[in-house]
């Protein structure tokens, strides 16, 4: 029963995709190729909009990323430190986005609570947790020495 339902859902999605794909991909002429890239960008932007709108963790991580960038500017970080901070922030954003996709997909495939579905979602949630801890530790390595210099100068 569940397999039949899932197969019907997949077939319906594929039929819909077959209707859309020729419109999006178009022919080999340049205007259609440019349209393809433009549409790809629009679809990606729409996905980002969904993540920002639906995922409070993503919004929190964005706010913390902005704070890290402000701290980098105030503390006059080097170009290398800026690059490291940007890479860490991007890693957190990407892993959170992938986690959101897993959650949506699992909820779509198995809407009712199931132990395996919960396990998959928990495992996917580990990725942004690991990335966030890595970013935090990296941020501490970059920011603490700079803050310590300011504290020492203030105490003199």
Characterize the biggest β-sheet.
none
| CA-based shape | elongated
Radius of gyration: 22 Å
CATH topology of the largest domain: Helix Hairpins
Strand count: 0
Distance between the termini: 75 Å
Structural class: mainly alpha
Task: Report the β-strand fraction as a percent range.
Answer: under 5%
The level-1 CATH class of the largest domain: Mainly Alpha
Regions with pLDDT < 50 over 5+ consecutive residues? 22-26
Number of domains: 2
CATH architect. name of the largest domain: Orthogonal Bundle
User: How much helix is in the residues?
Assistant: over 70%
Q: Number of helix segments?
A: 5
Folded structure, characterized:
The protein is elongated. It folds into 2 domains: 1-54, no CATH class; 55-156, Helix Hairpins. The chain has 156 residues and is an all-alpha fold. The model is unreliable at 22-26 (pLDDT under 50). The protein has helices at residues 2-25, 30-54, 56-74, 79-109, 115-155. α3 (56-74) packs antiparallel against α4 (79-109) and α4 packs antiparallel against α5. It contains 5 helices and no strands.
Offer a quick outline of the entry.
With 156 residues, this protein is mainly alpha-helical. The protein has five helices and no strands.
């Amino acid at each position: 029963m569940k397999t039949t339902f899932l197969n019907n859902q997949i077939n319906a999605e594929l039929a819909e995709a077959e209707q859309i794909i020729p419109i999006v991909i178009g022919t080999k002429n340049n205007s259609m190729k440019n349209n393809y890239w433009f549409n790809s960008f629009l679809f990606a932007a729409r996905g980002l909009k969904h993540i920002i709108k639906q995922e409070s963790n993503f919004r929190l991580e964005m706010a913390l990323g902005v704070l890290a960038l402000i701290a980098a500017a105030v503390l006059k970080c080097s170009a290398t430190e800026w690059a490291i901070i940007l890479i860490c922030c991007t890693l957190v954003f990407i892993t959170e986005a992938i986690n959101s996709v897993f959650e949506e997909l699992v909820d779509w495939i198995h809407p009712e609570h199931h132990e395996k579905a919960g396990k998959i979602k928990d495992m996917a949630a580990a990725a942004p947790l690991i990335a966030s801890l890595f970013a935090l530790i990296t941020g501490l390595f970059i920011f603490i020495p700079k803050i310590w210099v300011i504290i020492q100068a203030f105490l003199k």
